[in-house]
Structure formats: C-alpha cells, structure tokens
C-alpha cells in the first residue's frame, strides 16, 4: 500500500528563486539519490533542503512505518514567504528599497508500508482500547447499581 508523507520548512531566509534551483534537482528522485546529490551540491540552499528531506523520511518511518528503500520524492515545491523591507542608502541622500525574501518549502514523499509492523501494532492498540472500554462500562454499571440500592433504602 502506498503512503504519502509530508514535511514543511517555513520562513527559510533565502530567496525562493534560489531554493527552486535546488528543489528542481531532486524532484522525482529516490530519497537516497537525492540526499547524495544535495550533500555534494555547492548551492547554499542545498543544506536546508537536505535537512527537510531527512525530516520527511523520519516522519515516514515514525508515523507510517514505511520501508526506507521505497521512498521517493513525489513533489517538492517552494512558495514565497514573508518579505522584510529594508532600505539601502545611496548617493545624494537617496535610499532604495531592499527586499529580503523568505521561502516556504514543502516535500511530499511516497513509499510502501511495511505491512508486518503495521498489522501487529493495530491489533495491540485495538485490544488495549477494548479492555479500557470494558473497564469503564463495569465501573459505571457498578456505581449506578450502588446508587439505585442506596436510593431504595
């Protein structure tokens, strides 16, 4: 069964135009190949994107019990974040605007679920929940019957 896992990096203080160059390199790759590609890339945006992909892999393993070798970068996109407006002093008393841009990067990974782990965990959780519910019901019925007998006396 295929599962999608998502991770976001928000307010990265780097221009979206520069981050999109790096994101385009790894789009559609297997995770292992993408991490190797980013490790040896000289662009400054490679490090934050690499960390984001590693975070998405950790999410996939922890939350969805996905096999690591099946993970693939399905989509990666970069949106504009907030812009800090600053001023640069220029000649003859003038000033020109500076726009310090930020980015929001989103990665969506797909991979196959490790069925053996998933099934055993679900059964254990269901059994524990059923036992808790039974305990609550018996407590309520005992307290209700105790109140009824106390009211009759």
TrEMBL record:
Keyword entries, A-Z: Coiled coil, Ribonucleoprotein, Ribosomal protein, RNA-binding, rRNA-binding
Gene Ontology MF term list: rRNA binding; structural constituent of ribosome
Gene3D superfamilies named among the record's database cross-references: Ribosomal protein L22/L17
InterPro entries: Ribosomal_uL22, Ribosomal_uL22_bac/chlpt-type, Ribosomal_uL22_bac/org-type, Ribosomal_uL22_sf
Coiled-coil stretches noted in the UniProt entry, renumbered to this chain: 116-143
UniProt-listed GO biological process terms: translation
GO-annotated cellular components: cytosolic large ribosomal subunit
Keyword Coiled coil: yes
Stored Pfam families: Ribosomal_L22
Family: Belongs to the universal ribosomal protein uL22 family.
Quaternary state and interactors: Part of the 50S ribosomal subunit.
Known role: This protein binds specifically to 23S rRNA; its binding is stimulated by other ribosomal proteins, e.g., L4, L17, and L20. It is important during the early stages of 50S assembly. It makes multiple contacts with different domains of the 23S rRNA in the assembled 50S subunit and ribosome.
Protein name in UniProt: Large ribosomal subunit protein uL22
Lineage summary: Bacteria, Candidatus Magasanikiibacteriota
Gene: rplV
